[in-house]
User: What shape does this take?
Amino acid sequence: MIRSKKTEKETKIELCNLKKSFGSKLVLDGVDIDVKKGESLVVIGGSGSGKSVLIKSIIGIIQPDSGIVKIDGKDINHLTGKEYHEYQSHIGMLFQGGALFDSLKVWENISFRLLNRERVSKKEAKEIAVAKLAQVGLSSEVADLQPSELSGGMQKRVALARAIATNPEIIFFDEPTTGLDPIMADVINDLIVKCSKELNATTVTITHDMASARKISDRIAMLYKGKIIWHGNTKDIDKSKNDYVNQFIHGHAEGPIKMELKR
Amino acid sequence: MGFVQGIGALFLNFLAAIGRLSFFASNAIFNIFRPRFYWRNVLRQMLEIGYYSLPVVGLTAIFTGAVLALQSYTGFSRFSAESAIPNVVVLSMTRELGPVLAGLMVAGRVGAAMAAEIGTMRVTEQIDALTTLSTNPIRYLIVPRMVAAVITLPCLVLIADIIGVYGGYLVGVHKLGFSHGSYLKNTIDFLEYFDVYSGLVKAAVFGFIISLMGCYHGFNSRGGAQGVGAATTNAVVSASILILLSNYLITELFFSK
Assistant: This one.
């Protein structure tokens, strides 16, 4: 990836009019947003608002129907195989359920890319894995366990270690605190902030946990019915004067957002 | 009108499914020849498909060979053609029953496991995770299974052939009064290289079918535990039917005049 000489405020990720539908269901209806280098963007929104599809479109797992995803000014849907691989090697992703490979040991999970793509020796890969485990607050004994032997919070930490194992420039977090108790959720939040700072990484997080969103974000965008209906700095979210945002951040059942109870 | 529409929709869905399957299969085959090739995964799958299927395939073969000898005796003894029994056993085993029964047993054992494993990886986002870790899931998961199945099934069938003949031999010698020598002589005299060879070709095709169905249904499973369950069922049923269908077609190709 070509790095331009410009400092701090260059645009890292740029989405233009991104659209995606599955069958007759329109999931993304023209999303425009950009993320600056080193910035942490959190996308909030209810279940089914298209958050996951958005993040998967940026990674390239889902092809959008129309619109452009640019990373460092390059349209990722028109990359050659080699360029796409190059792009993949600069991103990390923390999946909602961890998505650890249950047939592999913890350390093999963490150094998966090192072992399979970059041909690092086993010994070295394990050393890196142990170092990354330490970075997320786990001891080296965990390295030889199977993922199924770990608790939910530990699985999340291991998954985080895997996401940051190759020092990515961009990290995506898919609901990092879902399914964790409040304390563990805060531990994960702290780790996310710490790790992104250490790597100086650009991060995009999707969540519906407002405590987490406030803690890890520089900027927040709200997705509703496939559109970004509000975005701004985190400190401004309480004075957004947007009824949708207010309803969401305060978690009220009454308001402009109606839960679709039947299809 | 509704009825005709229904038939039309069914037919279109059928064609779409064939299209998706062909695309998946050609994508997998194309990826066999592209780096990188995961040898370790191939070996692990060969162990899983071949070695661990030996007991079930062996048991199936020995009882099938034994029952073949027993049944052909009840028929042939009516016109004093008992000497043809070893011949019937060995030809049926090598040409048809060895590959078909081994294929069906492996479809139930391995096809189901493939669909369940890959399906679970799909619904828990492990396949997406592979992509984000710069690893092509087709190359990492699908290609090793297909290569392993195509290599391993002929080996399994060869073993099933031998065990099946041995099952017939046990019944022939211990129950039907053949002497060791004459049973073996009758077996070998009538056996041609081509009989075994055609069965092994069938086995390779069945291996392809089993792995393709297991991987395809697993890879495209949706919606949690229920989706994985449906994928497993579909994988076994479609593999079994395709095995029987392709068995007929290959037999037609090899043996019809």
Notes: Chain B has one domain: 38-255. Chain B has a mean pLDDT of 92. Residues 41 and 141 of chain B are 8 Å apart (CA to CA). Chain B has nine helices and no strands.
